[in-house]
Specification:
Layout: E1 5-12, H1 25-29, E2 34-38, H2 46-59, E3 62-66, H3 84-104, E4 111-112, H4 116-124, H5 126-139, E5 144-147, H6 152-160, E6 164-169, H7 191-204, E7 206-208, E8 214-216, E9 221-224, H8 231-244, E10 248-249, H9 252-259
Parallel strand pairs: 1-2, 1-9, 1-10, 2-3, 3-4, 4-5, 5-6, 6-9
Antiparallel strand pairs: 7-8
Helix pairs in contact: 3-5, 4-5, 5-6, 7-8
């Protein structure tokens, strides 16, 4: 089914202290409808979190927490061995931190989206997914949880009644299972190829895998990463291509609300 309404999200606030990424949060914020704000474990710090929240409010972009493994050196892309309850507590800790900055600026959090290796760990670990969903139902039942449609996270959240947003990854490859191929470092990408891939996914519901197959894909939101080389060009080209093909960009909450019970 063609997706004529889609969220466009990006991970922001992924600097630390004086360190910043190539693409600025100010420029990327103009391209997206939902921002995933780093919450201090893999990147980000209190001053940066406050700045990005304020910027999102000014630009009318929906806010989400982007909690990761406690791994500043590895940018949250290395797996940290810990019990599920420890990881859930880490996620709640980070979620609460960003929620306070959102409250300071008079807005609510739209969503939570685990970062990097933690996202992939939750996706494949049913026990971790169950404990995370249970915790979110108690602390943040109205908060959308971002995940892949083939993940354990999606199945568990849907069964429990927690609202979910399925993602499509603009700047990641897919394998035959429908999962993204995890990467610690990204090679430069052709922005037009990325845009064409996303437009095809929206209009045809198909994506080409690394094995060379076409598979079906369903999603509510498209993600591109601020640390991908050339992120600003990728985001600019992608946004223009979506609009040129009659695909409207809106915050995830609006996309999910319009989809209603169809999922």
């Amino acid at each position: 089914m063609a997706a004529r309404l889609v969220d466009l999200n990006c991970d922001l606030g992924e600097g630390f202290g004086q360190w910043t990424l190539e693409a600025s949060d100010d420029d990327l914020m103009d391209l997206i409808s939902s921002a995933n704000v780093a919450t201090g474990f893999h990147a980000g710090d209190p001053n940066l979190m406050d700045r990005v929240v304020r910027l999102a409010v000014e630009r009318g972009v929906a806010l989400g927490a982007h909690p990761g493994f406690r791994d500043l050196q590895g940018f949250g892309r290395r797996v940290i061995q810990a019990r599920p309850e420890e990881l859930v507590n880490d996620i709640l800790y980070q979620l609460g931190a960003l929620r306070e900055f959102a409250r300071r600026h008079g807005v609510r959090l739209q969503h939570v989206k685990p970062h990097g290796a933690l996202y992939m760990e939750v996706a494949r670990d049913e026990t971790l997914s169950e404990q995370l969903v249970e915790a979110l139902l108690k602390s943040s039942p109205e908060t959308l949880l971002f995940c892949m449609d083939v993940s354990k996270t999606y199945a568990v959240a849907r069964a429990a009644g927690l609202p979910v947003v399925r993602e499509f990854y603009a700047d990641r490859d897919y394998d035959r299972s429908g999962s993204i191929v995890f990467a610690r470092r990204m090679r430069p990408l052709d922005p037009q190829e990325v845009a064409d891939k996303c437009v095809r996914a929206c209009l045809e519901g198909k994506v080409r895998t690394v094995e060379g197959d076409d598979i079906d894909i369903e999603f509510d939101s498209i993600c591109f990463h601020s640390d991908t080389p050339g992120a600003l060009r990728i985001g600019t080209t992608l946004r223009a291509a979506l609009i040129d093909n009659g695909i409207r960009i809106a915050p995830a909450a609006e996309v999910v609300a319009q989809a209603g019970g169809s999922r």
